[in-house]
Design goal:
alpha/beta; TIM Barrel
């Protein structure tokens, strides 16, 4: 592992593997002030980020432990760097006087009970994103699906609008119900295509050989959830592995707010992302915070 000189002209270091070239992505001299400013809100001064997604309801409905989003995230807000959320939940559940930078989910139009999750459209205009003071917008792309072309053209159109107003676009490499697609070959393809079409950040799943995904993507990569895991330790393991292999951070929701101890979990993950904690150290933080939580609850 080596460290990059910096990104963005913002003093943000880049973690890269020794086999990869240094990405001066955010150092682009022509980048507008507004774009730089919004990216700096999302990516902290150490070059890393912890995004907390609560947008699941846009196709899943009232997801377990996210029935009341405002209550779910209230104790977690101070530990995340940004929220990934739809405009409806933002307006209804998020206190505008006590929040973090917003990544606005702007694609949708399908549901778990519908025919095809990949048949998404753009649901929210860039003007609405500006009105809601979003730091970025997020859209899913479905490479290899029946609606591949439509989803990729949606991304391209959104990038055009985002660049016009200085708002970065985060592309999400979605797989719909086909979870078996979450391997390095497929995710490398999807992530690279999203970057080629202009996404400023790519959100993709962690997988085995994750360095192949990161090394083939010329823009920053954040990790979504990895494989289904049986223990909390396994969450720390895949996040640590992804960070070591070049991701700049995570976009984890259910692994945090569906955990029986969400605050200890997000504290431990934050230590991996922003303090370079090892898996062992993260697990120790998690266990210590659980004990503290239990003591407080019993008093």
């Amino acid at each position: 592992m080596v460290m990059g000189i910096g990104v963005g002209g913002l003093g943000l270091p880049t973690r890269i593997t020794s086999t990869n070239h240094v990405i001066f992505y955010l150092r682009e001299e022509r980048m507008e002030w507004g774009m730089k400013n919004r990216l700096a809100q999302l990516v902290k001064s150490d070059g890393h980020c912890l995004f907390l997604p609560i947008d699941h309801g846009y196709f899943q409905g009232p997801t377990r432990k996210l029935e009341k989003p405002g209550e779910t995230i209230r104790p977690l807000l101070r530990y995340c760097d940004a929220l990934f959320v739809t405009r409806g939940v933002l307006r209804a559940s998020i206190d505008p006087e006590n929040t973090k930078p917003i990544i606005l989910r702007v694609s949708g139009g399908t549901s778990m009970v519908g025919k095809d999750l990949s048949d998404e459209g753009i649901t929210t205009s860039m003007e609405e994103a500006i009105r809601l003071n979003a730091a970025a917008v997020g859209i899913s792309v479905f490479v290899g699906s029946e609606h591949e072309k439509e989803s990729l053209l949606n991304l391209s159109k959104l990038v055009d609008e985002g660049e016009k107003y200085g708002i970065p676009v985060m592309a999400v490499t979605a797989v719909g119900k086909e979870l078996e697609k979450r391997d390095a070959r497929y995710l490398s393809l999807s992530s690279r295509i999203a970057a080629e079409l202009g996404a400023r950040i790519v959100k993709t799943y962690w997988c085995e050989n994750f360095d192949k995904v990161v090394n083939g993507c010329p823009v920053p990569v954040v990790m979504a959830g990895g494989p289904k895991v049986d223990t909390d330790l396994e969450v720390f393991e895949f996040v640590h592995d992804g960070m070591e292999k070049g991701a700049i951070g995570v976009n984890l929701g259910r692994n945090i707010w569906q955990n029986d101890f969400p605050v200890p979990m997000i504290k431990a993950l934050r230590a991996v992302i922003h303090e370079k904690a090892t898996v062992k150290e993260a697990n120790e933080i998690f266990e210590q915070e659980k004990i503290k939580k239990s003591k407080v609850s019993s008093e």
